Amino acid sequence: MLDPVSLFIYEDHVDQRTVRANTLVVTLGSFMDAGHSQAIVDRHLLDSLSGHQLGHFDMDQVLDYAGHRPVVTFDRDHLKDYEPPQITLHQLTDAAGNDFLLLQGPEPSLQWERMAASVAHLIEQFDVQQTVLLQGIPAPAPHTRPTVITQYASDPTLLEEEPVFGSFQMSATFGSALTVRLDEAGHDVRGLVAHVPHYLAEGDYAPAAIALLGELSKTASLDIPTSALEVAAAATLAGVTEQVEASDEVGEVVRQLEQNYDAFVEGRRRITAEAENLPSADEIGAEFEDFLKGLGGPDASAN
CB count, 10 Å around CB of 162? Predict the structure, then answer.
């Protein structure tokens, strides 16, 4: 592997010795950013919070430009406005004065191992205690219900709810590879995945970004206002509602999704309630000890 440390380039004004943050937020793209969830989160954090760019990664090393072609403008008789993609690291400050880091940009297509090692080096250098990955996926979810957030973690004890999915194989993204490598290096990682209505996955869906930021705030003890996004979310939902009401066929699809969603939520509620009524490990152990003691009693001897 080539040197991972040299892959990251600091901005000239940054004294890396002074950078400290408890949380690293990762919004690197993957094969799909449903509802443009990552892009909306990025814009909101960078536009609404104070902060500065710490540095960037050497894109010539990690990106396949032919597979992720940048945009350039042809203006009458000349080309202009070529903007090469960047993977950047920012230090931001939330509304309560807490610093955190944001790693954002397109998914790297080359040198995944070197890139993951470089991120791990930055985490260790800045004393980051947890890394949180944000993403949106298309799902059979109605826009009329709250956005579901599925969580995963390097250490399952970090999660408060039972997992939604079982075990299955899928094509890896850089985010999934990064999660595994950071876990192997002993770093805590959590993933937050927003379920975006599949019929709205191609456009901006602000409710998913709001849900991700709300869960991020709880997970990382951050204060991230979302009032500006709520205006955009209300406009999006109003427009979708108008379109749904204009089509009986679409309306029926949404009603079926609502029924499935409600059944799923009720099933999760029952599972949670049943789990809360289960005896603890100590209670089970005590009952088992009593059982063993009973085996040695007079009745047992008689048999």
Answer: 9
Q: What is the phi/psi pair of residue 80, to 5°?
A: -155, 175
Is 171 within 8 Å of 157 (Cβ atoms)? no
Q: How many other C-beta atoms are found inside a 10 Å radius of the C-beta of residue 234?
A: 12
Output Rg (C-alpha) for the chain, integer angstroms: 24
**pTM over 0.90, yes/no:** no
Q: What one-letter code names the amino acid at 193?
A: V
| pLDDT one-digit tens code per residue, 111-157 | 999 999 999 999 999 999 999 999 999 999 999 999 999 999 988 88
What are φ and ψ of residue 66, in 5° steps? Answer: -65, -30
H runs (alpha helix) in the chain:
37-48, 59-62, 112-125, 174-184, 206-220, 227-245, 248-277, 281-295, 298-302
CA atoms of 122 and 126, how far apart (whole Å): 6
Q: What is the distance between the alpha carbons of residues 68 and 134, in angstroms, rounded to a whole number?
A: 21
Nearest CA-CA partner of 32 in 169, 193, 153, 150: 193
| H or E element, residue 78 | strand 78-80
